[in-house]
Amino acid sequence: MAASRKGAKSRIGFNTRAVHSGEEGCPLTGAVSTPIYQTSTFSLKPPSKEQALPGGMQYVYTRVANPTTSALETKIADLAGGEAGLALASGMAAISAVLFTLVGSGDHIVCSDVIYGCTHDLLKGVMRRMGVESTFVDLSEPDNLAGAVRDNTRLVFLETPANPTLKLINIRSISDIAGEYGIKAIVDNTFMTPYLQRPLELGADIVVHSATKYISGHGDTIGGIIVGDEDFIREVRGEALKDIGGCISPFNSWLLLRGVKTMGLRMERHSSSALEIARFLESHSMVRTVMYPGLKSHPQHGLAKLQHQCGSSGMITFDVETQYNAIKVLDSLEMCTMAVSLGDVNTLLEHPATMTHRSLSRKERHDLGINDGLLRISVGIEDSADIIADIDQALSKVRYKK
Ligand SMILES: Cc1ncc(COP(=O)(O)O)c(C=O)c1O
Q1: Spatial distance between the Cα atoms of 108 and 156, rounded to a whole number of angstroms
Q2: 161 and 286 share one domain
Q3: Ligand 1: which of 88, 115, 116, 120 to mutate, judged by most atoms within 8 Å of the beta carbon?
Q4: How confident is the model over 344-401, as pLDDT tens digits?
Q5: CA-wise closest residue to 384 among 316, 302, 321, 308
Q6: In a domain, 220, yes or no
Q7: Do 238 and 93 sit in the same domain of this protein?
Q8: Same structural domain for residues 279 and 366?
Q9: Residue 240 and residue 298 share a domain
C-alpha cells in the first residue's frame, strides 16, 4: 500500500495506516517487512527509483537520511497529521534539534512550568549558555502565555499531560495565542502518542515525541521524532541533523517501525488499565491523592475529554506523603519494576523527586506539586489485576504518623 500522506483525517483508519503507511516492503525480493538498510553510505551513480528519497532527492549518507528511517518518518507524519517527519537518535535529540533550528543568541522561549527534567535542564543549561533565555510559566491558564511573551520570543514549548504532575494544557487555546503573537507552538506529545492526542490538528505548529516510550512500546530502543511542515523538517534535516549529527540507527528505526504497528492496541490497553488502577488507588486508604486525567476527580477532566481521542494513556501519579513511604513502595514491588522511562509493555514506577526531576531544587519541585511522596506509574499491558495486587501489597508497607 502506498504511503498515505493525507493525515489523520484520511478515510483510511488509524490502525490501518499504523500498519501500512510508509512501508513499501523490499522492491528487490518482495519481502513484506521493510528491510533494515544497515549501510552508512550509498552509491552515487544516477539514482534508481528505489534510491530516491521522498521529494526526489537521492540517499547519500545515513547521518542525513536512510530508507528504513524514511519509512518510519513517513508513517509517523501520517499518523500525527503532519506533512513530514524526522527521526533522530533520542527524544532529547529531537527536542534540541527543533530548538537549535528555531532560536539563536538573543532569543527567548516560553515553556510550560512542569516539564520533563532534561528539557528543563536543556533550557536552563545549554540554551542559556548559547544566549537563549527561557521563562517557565503555568500554561494550564492559557492567558499566562500572553503575559510572558516578549518582543524576542520565538516559540512556546509545552508538554500535556505534564511530566510528572499530569496537569493539562489546552493546546488549541495556546496555539491560537501563539499565532496572534507570531510565535511557534511546539508540543511534546510523548505521553499520549498520535493515537490519543494530535496537537497539529489542534493548531500546534510542531510536535515532538520521545519514540523511546509508547511509539517503541517495548522498552528496547531509544529514538525521537519531529513532525511539522515540509519546509521546517527540511531545515532541521539540512542543519541540526546534518551538522550536529544526532541521527538514529537504521536498526532502531526498524524497531520503532515494528512498535508503531501495535501502538493503537497498546494505547487502548494502557488507557483502560490505567483508569482501573487510578480508581483502585483513589479508593486506597494509604494513598493521599491520585492524578489521572481520565478520572472524574482530575481538575481538568473536561479538557481531557475534549483533547484526548479515546483514552488518557497509561501515566498515573499518586502521593504517599513522604519520601520514606515512596521509596518503601518502590522497594517492595515484586512484579512491577522500579525504573525511569515509560510507555513499555512492563509496568514501571519511579520517584520523580529523586529520579527524573532530581535536578530541580526542593522548593522548585514543591512549588510545581512534585512532592517528596509522589510516585509515577507507567502502566504496562500485564493483566490489570496483577498490577493492582502488586501495588496493593507494596502499599501495605506504608506507615503514617498517628
Ligand atoms: C515527556 C518526555 N519528553 C522527552 C523525553 C526524552 O526522551 P529520550 O529519553 O528518548 O531522549 C522524555 C524521557 O523520559 C520524556 O518523558
Answers
A1: 9
A2: no
A3: 116
A4: 999 999 999 999 999 889 999 999 999 999 999 999 999 999 999 999 999 999 988 7
A5: 316
A6: yes
A7: yes
A8: yes
A9: no
Tell me how many domains the chain contains.
2
Which are the catalytic amino acids? 63, 116, 188, 213
Same domain, 129 and 185: yes
SS3 206: strand
Grid cell for residue 28: 528487490
Stretch 311-320: mean pLDDT = 98
Grid cell for residue 92: 532529547
Q: Which residues line ligand 1 (CB under 6 A)?
A: 90-92, 116, 118, 159, 163, 188, 190-191, 210, 212, 222, 224, 341
**Domain encompassing residue 296:** 263-395
Rounded CA separation 44/166 (Å): 49
Same domain, 34 and 169: yes
CA distance 202 to 402: 49
Nearest atom in ligand 1 to 223's CA: 10
Task: Determine the distance from the C-alpha atom of residue 287 to the mean position of all C-alpha atoms in its chain, rounded to a whole number.
Answer: 27
Q: Classify residue 207: in a domain, yes or no.
A: yes
Three cell numbers written together for 363: 522548593
Predicted model pTM: 0.94
| Site of grid cell 530541580 | 360
